[in-house]
Design a protein that fits this description.
single chain, elongated, alpha/beta, five-stranded parallel beta sheet, Rossmann fold, 152 residues
């Protein structure tokens, strides 16, 4: 990784927040935590996060509701639902509400890290494509303006 990705861990269990923070920081990520949905929304409005790990059951709102709220504050942020209560209905609803992945607790840390990196890589590629398109647009527009100036 050239720049450290920022990850927000949203879980009401202090032990899960602590373990995930330690593991992710060891892997070189910047990590912040939130213990409920309101705190996660507040933080996502003032901070940039590349990715959020969101527990499906939070004390103040369901994780899928938080997905919708966070999509409005940070639409490009990758959002991964983590749950100890897996069900097909939860998985479908999470994906329909904007989850990029759905991981079941207890977490397999290796698989979780692979999932995180895959989504961060997709994000990096999308950003490069956007930057490339923007550069191409500017170069084309400059040539058009130069041509118009010469034609006058």
């Amino acid at each position: 990784m050239c720049t450290k990705a920022s990850i927000l861990v949203v879980d009401d269990e202090p032990s899960i927040r602590k373990v995930l923070t330690a593991i992710l920081e060891e892997k070189g990520y910047n990590v912040e935590t939130a213990e409920n949905g309101k705190e996660a929304i507040r933080k996502s409005k003032t901070q940039f996060y590349n990715l959020a790990l969101i527990d499906i059951r939070l004390p103040d709102m369901e994780g899928v509701k938080l997905l919708t709220e966070m999509k409005e504050t940070k639409p490009k942020m990758a959002k991964i639902i983590i749950t100890g209560y897996p069900s097909l209905q939860n998985a479908v609803e999470a994906v329909n509400k904007g989850a990029d992945a759905y991981i079941i607790k207890p977490l397999n840390i290796d698989k979780t890290l692979v999932t995180i990196e895959e989504h961060l890589e997709k994000q990096r590629k999308a950003q490069k494509m956007t930057e490339g398109s923007l550069v191409e647009f500017i170069e084309t527009r400059v040539k058009q303006l130069e041509h118009e100036k010469i034609s006058r």
